[in-house]
Amino acid sequence: MTGAGVLAVVLIAVAVAVVGYLLVALLDPERF
């Protein structure tokens, strides 16, 4: 896999993690 491919995978993983965190924060604010 090329460097650009690795970077794309990392960016997608970070984006998914951020979106998931925001969804949890919105749906279950008592946890924070």
TrEMBL record:
The gene is kdpF. GO terms for cellular component: plasma membrane. Keywords: Membrane, Transmembrane, Transmembrane helix. The chain crosses the membrane at residues 6-27. One of its GO terms (molecular function) is P-type potassium transmembrane transporter activity. It comes from Speluncibacter jeojiensis. The keyword Transmembrane applies. The keyword Cytoplasm does not apply. This is K(+)-transporting ATPase subunit F. It comes from the Bacteria.
